[in-house]
Amino acid sequence: MIREEREKLEEKWLSPFAQQSSNTLGRQLEEEKCDIRTDYQRDRDRIVYSKAFRRLKHKTQVFLSPEGDHYRTRLTHTLEVSQIARTIARSLRLNEDLTEAVALGHDLGHTPFGHTGESVLNAICPHGFKHNEQSIRVVEVLERENGLNLTWEVRDGIRHHTGNGTAKTLEGQLIKYADRIAYINHDIEDAIRGKVISEEELPRECVKVLGNKSSKRINNMVVNIIENSKDKNHIKMSEEFQMATNELRDFMFKNVYIGSAAKKDEMKAQNIIRELYKHIRETPELMPEETAVMLKKFDLDRVVCDYIAGMTDRYAVKKFNEIFIPASWR
């Protein structure tokens, strides 16, 4: 079978530190293997064909409802993370299929209006809210009838792409780096395009170390990771690059992510999420049938949170208008 041939090629080609498809810890529910695709290839395909993945195209990255066509969305961010991660994985002879699956699934649980929506749901939902944990909930519970039934390694990588935890595979670990490389640099591009910051305002020492353009910075950061991780059982940057990356990220939080012109409608977005949550919790019959059926398994707050977290920006605005804005009389 083609799958078995592929698995044998992995044994010959992949680094001894890579995760081989044939050695997966398996799925939540056992199922018959595919004749053609490895388990990680199947996981990648299931993610790409999921409804949650399609919704990412209408979810905010940084700019809320940007008018220009060139600003990133959560979907384009995901694709850029995947490209960066695959480049690193291939150079280190890691499992590229596993890497791609984790990259494509890492933000499936993100809310409308980006981290603004995430912070509101975390504050008002008794269960709390973290988008990486919600991404796991999407693939384990919310998609299809019983989730996507992904392999353990893909789910582990998705869960640990952010926060203090560390993925068990190197493929999962490198997603945390690829995610940060992608969002720092493309958010700089978008912020400059939106005249929120200028190229000259970027920290001089960071630019000196990492590069003076996004393309150069991405290339230099990727090369640095490869040079410091090749033939090793870890994924890391050099200390100099790590410090410059952290400083550049801090600069973005101070000048773009919090209180900047890019966030001028943040209070409005927060109000939309907050009022939708409160109203739908009081009138759960407003939820679609496919969502309401989850009340048989989970409590009301959990289901309402799932419903709102799954909304796109424009759907959240549409539902808010339907509920709270009077329609013109005809």
List the helices and strands and how they pair.
Blueprint: H1 2-13, H2 39-48, H3 51-55, H4 74-91, H5 96-105, H6 114-124, H7 131-142, H8 152-159, H9 170-193, H10 204-210, H11 214-229, H12 239-257, H13 266-282, H14 289-292, H15 300-309, H16 313-324
Helix pairs in contact: 2-5, 4-5, 4-9, 4-11, 5-8, 5-9, 6-13, 8-9, 9-11, 9-12, 10-12, 13-15, 13-16
Explain what the structure shows.
This protein is an all-alpha fold and 330 residues long. It has a single domain, classed as Hypothetical protein af1432. Helix content is 59%, strand content 0%. It contains 16 helices and no strands. It has helices at residues 2-13, 39-48, 51-55, 74-91, 96-105, 114-124, 131-142, 152-159, 170-193, 204-210, 214-229, 239-257, 266-282, 289-292, 300-309, 313-324. Helix 8 packs across helix 9 (170-193), helix 9 packs across helix 12 (239-257) and helix 10 crosses helix 12 (239-257). The longest helix is centred in the middle third of the chain and has 24 residues, at 170-193. It is flat, with a radius of gyration of 21 Å.
What are the main properties of this structure?
330 residues; mainly alpha; Hypothetical protein af1432; 16 helices; flat
